[in-house]
Design a protein that fits this description.
Elements (H helix, E strand, L loop, with lengths): L5 E7 L7 E7 L4 E5 L5 E6 L3 H10 L5 E5 L4 E5 L6 E5 L5 E6 L24 E2 L6 E2 L34 E4 L5 E5 L1
Antiparallel strand pairs: 1-2, 2-8, 3-7, 4-6, 5-6, 5-8, 9-10, 11-12
């Protein structure tokens, strides 16, 4: 099954603050998002429009994907993306999926810089312990961007690549190489 995408840019601003924007790809109607892990659903509410649902995703640094049904007004935000979820056909022809498009250029210029560099930015947050721009929760710095942390049994290549909130660590084998996420 082929899914076609249209692109939209969502920008949210408030008086006296910088604009925080994201570029989204939108599926055709008749699709919803199915995350691999239930813990990745971060919001499930009723909102009045697709624009408000996409704005809610844009305002949440953990949101990578959302779906919205214009009949039921159901808006769901996920910290999952297509690496651990899927866009699937649904019986509702009024449901649509939006995915935040990420690239290294959104991260590299500000990672580990003073917090002023990432103020009002959805891709990195200010760490109160280091006063520097860091990856948002449940993601990690891989040298160029902040992908989602991995789940149990996933192959990992660095110590912070696994979901620590689920007590997972990147196991090191007898040769000193990182292998997989495990409890």
């Amino acid at each position: 099954m082929m899914i076609f995408f249209i692109f939209a840019v969502i920008a949210v601003s408030s008086p006296g603050h910088a604009v925080s924007s994201s570029t989204l790809s939108l599926s055709l109607q008749g699709h919803e998002f199915q995350s691999e892990y239930d813990v990745q659903l971060i919001f499930n509410e009723t909102v009045e429009s697709l624009i408000l649902c996409s704005a809610a995703c844009n305002q949440n640094p953990s949101c990578r994907t959302f779906d919205y049904d214009s009949s039921s007004h159901r808006c769901r935000l996920f910290e999952a993306d297509l690496t651990n979820g899927a866009i699937v056909a649904t019986a509702s022809q009024t449901s649509i999926v939006g995915s935040v498009i990420l690239s290294a250029s959104l991260y590299a210029s500000m990672y580990n810089q003073y917090c002023s560099a990432c103020q009002e930015n959805r891709y990195q947050i200010c760490s109160s312990t280091t006063n520097t721009c860091q990856c948002p929760g449940n993601s990690y710095w891989n040298g160029s961007m902040c992908p989602l942390q991995l789940f149990e049994n996933a192959t990992c290549s660095q110590i912070d690549a696994c979901r620590s909130d689920l007590n997972l660590s990147c196991i090191i084998n007898s040769s000193g190489e990182f292998t997989q996420c495990s409890i």
